[in-house]
Amino acid sequence: MCARGWTGSGKEEERNTGTINGRQHMRRTNYCGLFSEQDVGKPTTACGWVETKRDMGGVIFIDLVDREGVLQIVFNPAYTDPEAFALAERVRNQSALIVEGAMFLRDEETVNPKIATGTVELRVDRAELLSTCGDLPFNPAEADDVREDLRLRYRYLDLRRKRLRDNIRFRHRVASAIRRFMDSEGFVDVETPILTKSTPEGARDYLVPSRVHQGSFYALPQSPQLFKQLLMVAGFDRYYQIARCFRDEDLRADRQPEFTQLDMEMSFVEMEDILATLERLFRAVVGEVKDIHFDAPFPRLTWVEAMDRYGSDKPDLRFDLPIVDITDIAPSMGFSVFSKAVEAGGVVRAITVPGQSDFTRNTINDLTDFAVSEGAGGMAWIAWRPSGEIYSILSKFVEEKDMRILLDRVNARPGDFVLFSADKPDVVRKVTGALRLKLGDILGLRDPDKFAFAIVTDFPMFEYNEEEGRYTAQHHPFTMPFMEDLDYLVSDPPRVRSQAYDFVLNGIELGSGSIRIHRSDIQRRVFEALGLGEEEIEERFGFILNAFTYGAPPHGGFAFGLDRLVMLLAGEQSLRDVIAFPKIRDASCPMTDAPTAVAPDQLGALGICVADSPPSARESAASPREKRRAALNIKQLADDSRLLISEEEEAGMRDSLLELITFADALHEIDTEDVEPTFSTSESHDAWLTNRDSRPLTAEDALANAPASRGPFFFVPPVVE
Predict the structure, then answer these.
(1) CA-to-CA distance for 392 and 385, rounded, in angstroms?
(2) CA dihedral in degrees (408, 410, 415, 416; nearest 10)?
(3) pTM (two decimals)
């Protein structure tokens, strides 16, 4: 109905003709946010939603908004049709309108420099209400402070907010830039199956039962890993796909159960070929969507270098603060904590914080407590005053000449603060890595408007799983080990390095890749090192091992999360803010109430019986919200509370209580582990209710000031909305 009369070049194709009421068709002249002074004096048609309305004593101003922005439209009896003016008087916020009129320059005193159309306004001749808006759970124009669970339940309203609308369109720009680059580099976009075979790739699979093959299940893909390798065997050479992937794992701010990733694979390449292609990709995308360009090559570190220098395999390189190893000189310092750690096979490392010798005692205590929370036994430190004074407990144990050697090793200068960690290597890496990020936050070094990429290579092939009591693949079991490490696959698994690599942005892993195993004999050796038996290998991976016997080329690839990249580039803190319809922490959808139970006959067709399933199909198909609503016995609650409510009030009260319970559930889901407790600021305590009137209270006295009463009951207005 509101088809745009514009070509892809942005030039006007045709304008609206005729009247609004009874017209055969209607065409808007342009999007609301794209009008300009060039449109002044021209007949104009605009469509959109009523964002705000202001009645200025006979003249009504409405902000009409669409995906491109906002346009002020004016209704004035001097030039507006009476029916259109009456419509403007009664129209509700977020209703959809189409209006006709002429574009005028605003009066100088009413110009709004905050919006693109702030110098013009549409003076309305005629208007038509396309769709009225009911009672709003919240106004999208004022929803920034509305609790998230309510916004997600009405996500279609939430998406009318400018911030979210801009995020989704920014996401489109990022995806388009990726496609343009991949096409220009000769990659072929190939779709791979969604219903596939369950294979061990780290996280749990989402399983889909088969009706035809009862008792068997498909798995939703955690990634298109096997299929893209088979495409290399098939000779496609360069494959890519913006793929939907699924992992049944616990959620956090940068995780969703279903997500989107850029997936790619290349044949007849080595690691350097893939890294160079990826660096060009990220440079092109960030340059196009953010107009940010990088002069120097992206820094590269091996996994060991990253862990030792930054305490993390996803280092935040927006700031320096390197970790310095002093294990070799620590035993001679005379400080028993250092020497005992080294004797036990541990390490001693330090971080120098330039110019912060004046850290307050509270700051130092906070850092110490934080280090302990990360697994440290404590935190030694040195404050080297600008005057040259050494302020530290180490002064009691370390001689002056050794102190100078120590300070020189950690590159400290007068005015600096130095902190230390001494323990097992894994503990020290974790503690110093977390302290480095903590210091970055304290000192304001993690600028959200700055972007720093890093490439990490040579990851360990295996990691030990304490729960399973065996080694598992750190990346995935199809990663090629370095050829010189093959002999250690079984005899010394921790020694084996993989040809795997990560791209990191601002301390967050964007994605991972590797050179793949293309020889079936090496793939079998890796499976055996992972403890898989011959029968299990054939059952799970026989098809790909068989494919490798038909001339598989050397190949490798990469995948990174599109959601995560968009989140970082958009400056958001949660993936939910860059996904149109996200899930929440328990992997449910507040808007659709998914997941829901299904009727027994649907399960029967699949040959599935759910333990302790509800007896009726209606109950079985009910959503968790519907079940909770049915369980609310409002009549009993009213009787217990001595409240008199009508049948009409009962339904409304049930909905209100359900909203409060949902809100309480949302509060319960918030992670408050690291949040400091709050306390009442009131100085009152031990306050007791005292009787000031011993005269018996009669019902007549109690109801004397009630606005309305019914028998022994009086009206109570709602106090929580």
Answers:
(1) 11
(2) -170
(3) 0.80
Q: Is 506 left (phi over 0), alpha (psi -120 to 50) or beta?
A: left
In order of 168, 362, 377, 677, the CA distances from 369 in angstroms are: 40, 10, 10, 16
Rounded Cα gap, residues 232 and 125, in angstroms: 63
pLDDT above 50 (res 430): yes
pLDDT over threshold 90, residue 646: no
- The whole-number pLDDT of residue 3 equals 45
CA 180, 301, 223, 235 torsion: positive or negative?
positive
Residue 697 DSSP label: P
pLDDT in tens, 270-320: 999 999 999 999 999 999 999 999 999 999 999 999 999 999 999 999 999
Residues 6+ apart with CB under 8 A from 257: 206, 246, 247, 248, 249, 251, 583, 587
Please give the Cα distance from 396 to 441 (Å, whole number): 31
Structural domains of the chain in order of their starting residue, each with its CATH number: 3-135 (2.40.50.140), 166-297+454-577 (3.30.930.10), 319-446 (3.30.1360.30), 600-631 (no CATH)
Q: Is 559 exposed, middle or buried (0-12, 13-18, 19+ CB in 10 A)?
A: buried
Taking only the tens place, the pLDDT of each residue in 472-526 is 888 888 899 999 999 999 889 999 999 999 999 999 999 999 999 998 889 888 9
- Do residues 359 and 383 lie in contact, with contact meaning Cβ atoms separated by under 8 Å? yes
Residues whose CB is less than 8 angstroms from the CB of residue 605 and which lie 6 or more positions away in sequence, other chains included: 211
Is the separation of the CB atoms in 343 and 349 below 8 Å? no
Strands (DSSP E) contained in 415-570 are: 417-423, 453-457, 462-465, 470-473, 500-505, 508-515, 555-561
> Terminus-to-terminus CA distance in the chain, angstroms?
37
Neighbours of 633 (CB within 10 A): 11
What are 12's strand-pairing partners? 6
Within a 10 A sphere around the Cβ of 383, how many other Cβ atoms?
A: 19
Q: At what angle do helices 534-547 and 225-233 cross, to 10 degrees?
A: 40
Largest CA distance in the chain: 100
Q: Please state, as a whole number, how many other Cβ atoms lie within 10 Å of the Cβ of residue 692.
A: 5
Token pair in block for residue 690: 């005292």
DSSP state of 477: T
